[in-house]
Amino acid sequence: MACVWWTTAGVVHFEFLPSGQTINKDVYSAQLRRVAAALAKKQPSLVKRKGVLFHQDNARPHVEVINSLGWELLPHPPYSSDIAPSDYHLFRAMDNHMRNRQFRTREDVENEIKTFFASKDVNFHKCGIYDLVQRWEKVTEANGDYFPE
User: Fold this and answer.
1) Rounded to the nearest 5 degrees, what angle is found at the Cα of 28, between the Cα atoms of 25 and 31?
2) Which residues neighbour 124 within 8 Å (Cβ) at sequence distance 6 or greater?
3) Distances from the Cα of 84 to the Cαs of 29, 105, 136, 145, in angstroms?
4) What is the spatial distance between Cα 63 and Cα 3, in angstroms, rounded to a whole number?
């Protein structure tokens, strides 16, 4: 499983979980701290000037870590996969990219994912993040109800 964090400038940090490992509070908290370090290194002006507006689902145990990092958490209505940019933009494009390919090893899969990320320009990332604003407004105006595309 790949965990990905990205901005309008591109992928800031991604990592692959070891086989059999699942995300829990400790794993996610450690990942968020690595993301904060990567963001401070790759986009320090963003962090210092504007701050971080972080978007995630309703996993409340992680809010403590997000607050400790000084990030603002974008409210996410319950049951609203419509506004998870990784689902509708990034992973959809990755799914299309990898569809009908066969891989022999986990390393082959990881290398292809790295190639996919490297092939995307800034406009790809900007479109996904900017579309989030419009989707978020639709979902919040509908009080979190599902809306068709």
Assistant:
1) 150
2) 93
3) 19, 29, 9, 14
4) 18
Q: Integer distance in angstroms from the first to the last C-alpha of the chain?
A: 27
Class of CATH domain 2-141:
alpha beta
Q: Bridge-partner residues for 53, per DSSP?
A: 72
Q: How many Å apart are CA 11 and CA 128, to the nearest integer?
A: 12
Tell me the DSSP string of 43-103: -HHIIIII--EE---S-GGGHHHHHHTTPEEPP--TT-GGG-HIIIIIHHHHHHHHTT---
- As a whole number of angstroms, the distance between CA 48 and CA 50 comes to 6
DSSP state for residue 4 in the 8-state scheme = E
Per-residue pLDDT of the chain (149 residues; tens, 9 = 90+): 667 777 767 788 888 888 888 888 888 889 889 988 998 888 887 777 777 878 776 666 677 888 888 888 877 666 665 566 566 678 888 889 999 999 999 999 999 999 998 898 888 888 887 777 777 777 777 765 655 55
Partners of 6 in the β-ladder: 11
